[in-house]
Each structure stands twice: as structure tokens, then as C-alpha cells.
Amino acid sequence: MADLQLQLPGLSVGNDPPPQFLKWIGNKQRFARSISRILPVPAKRYIEPFVGSGAVLGAVAPTEGIAGDALKPLTDLWTMLQNDPQQILEYYQSTREAYLRDANSTYNRVLSSYNARPNPLDLLFLSRACYGGVVRFTKAGAMSTPRGPHTPIPAEKLSSRMKEWRERTKNTTFLWSDFEDTMGFAGYGDVIYCDPPYTYTQRILYGAQEFSLARLWSAIARAKAAGARVALSLDGSKKSGQVQTQFEIPEGLFERELHISCGASMLRRFQKSGENMQGEDVFDRLLLTF
Questions:
Q1: Could you tell me which CATH class the domain 2-71+168-206+213-288 is placed in?
Q2: What is the CATH code for 79-158?
Q3: pTM of the model
Q4: What confidence tier does 281 reach under pLDDT thresholds 50, 70, 90?
Q5: Three state DSSP letters for 40-62
Q6: Of the candidate ranges 30-34, 120-124, 220-224, 267-271, the one whose mean pLDDT is the lowest
Q7: Are 95 and 111 contacting, i.e. CB atoms less than 8 angstroms apart?
Q8: Where are the domains of the chain?
Q9: C-alpha distance from residue 249 to each of 246, 253, 269, 283, 289 (Å)
Q10: What is the average per-residue pLDDT within 133-149?
């Protein structure tokens, strides 16, 4: 992937994102720098309509950014990180201390609290304590992931990460928003990076969220017509390339396609806990309108 990037003109240098603030399955933490290097510069604004754990956003660290997501507690958490980080840290520290005394009862209490009233503080702790960072929701919107076997990171380590993420996202506005509305802000010279829920591999994670690729194709076409440049991460192949994912991509919407090797899928490791993962490597597709 690196050699292919170097052959492309007009690349940004890109940085590694800070260590994860949210532990989130399907994030682009390991590949954020590679993706950010492909995005064209200069850009007027950076727009990310499926922000999740924000790995690519953290690598880009835009001078002006808009980041949206359909999960309100998630965007509330990012906004709280900007405006009231101390509240986040105090809640996390006290909850972690209770967790160390009684992991099961504390996790179940936080999970029940979140499901009764979805909120950013519980979401953060659950993401750090649940099994493998698999933040999984039922169709009714309740989080359903069991507790993981690991101990959540110490508050001091989280505090250090929060400081880095606050600096990287200080120029970004976070929106609780449908992806079409977030992308609707795009105009000439803007750059959009889309990392939507993967149709083939992430259905169990987003039961509470409706997602339509047809709507996304239309939103990308509108943004492209407005003069924005769009990069889209999409399912590529599973089982070490033996199974190719198929999509009806509108002809002429994208100018080029790159492939990124992702290693063994985190989600498949969760689904096949304790089993042999040989042959379960996956590859992402990165589609570019430029």
C-alpha cells in the first residue's frame, strides 16, 4: 500500500492518530495514516460523516472539520471531550475503581444505565470494558455486548490520550446527524472521508441504525458535483481474498480504487473466539472520486 501511495500525486504526509480514546471495532486506527496520505491537499474543510472512533480524523487533525454520526451518545462524547474533559475523566476513574472491586456487577450496572438512558459517559466506559471493543446494538437500540476479560486502561493513561485527541479535534465541529445531512455541507475544495457500517461484516454491530448504500451513492454524487473530493472505505474481500464482496457501484462515480490489507478481522475474532483464524484475512477497498 505504501509503494502505491507514493506513486500518486498531491499526497498529504499524514500522521499516526493518537492511541485510541474510544475502543471501537472496525476502526481504522492501524490504517489511518495511510488513508490520510491519500487525501488531496490543500483542502478547504475535512468532513467525516461516519466518525465513530475518529481514527482518520485524528490523523488528519484538520484546521477546519465537520464530523457527524447517527449515534447521539457518540457525538455528545466528542463534544464533551472538547468542552468538559474533566467530567469524562472523573466518571471514568470512579467507575473503573468500582469495576476493579466487582467487575461483573459494575459492568452490568453501567450497561443497564446506558440502555435505560443512552449517554456519552457510559458509552465510553462500555467501549473500554466490553468484549473486544465490539460495541454491538440490538434493533431496539440497546447495547448487548458482554464484558471483556481484560481490565480497562488506567485513568492516567486515558487522560493522556484525551489531551492528544482534544488537540487533534479542536477545530472540528461534531454533529448528531444523518450522513446525508453532514455531507450536505460539502462544497468546492472540501474533502470527505466516508467509513460507513460494512454491509457484509458489521451488520450485527449496528442493529439500531438504518443504512442504505443507495443513499450514500447519491450523497457522494451530490458532493462530487459540488466540487468536493470523496474517499470511501468499503468491504473488499474476506477469507484471504477467497470471497469477493459485490456492490452495484454507479458507473463513473469513482476515478480509482485502492486495496488495503487489514489482516484478520476483529469481528471474526469475536465471532470465532478460540477457533483457528487461518484464512480469515480481509481486505478493504478505498474508492476515490479523484
A1: alpha beta
A2: 1.10.1020.10
A3: 0.85
A4: low
A5: ECCCCCEEECCCCCCHHHHHHCC
A6: 267-271
A7: no
A8: 2-71+168-206+213-288, 79-158
A9: 9, 8, 29, 18, 12
A10: 90
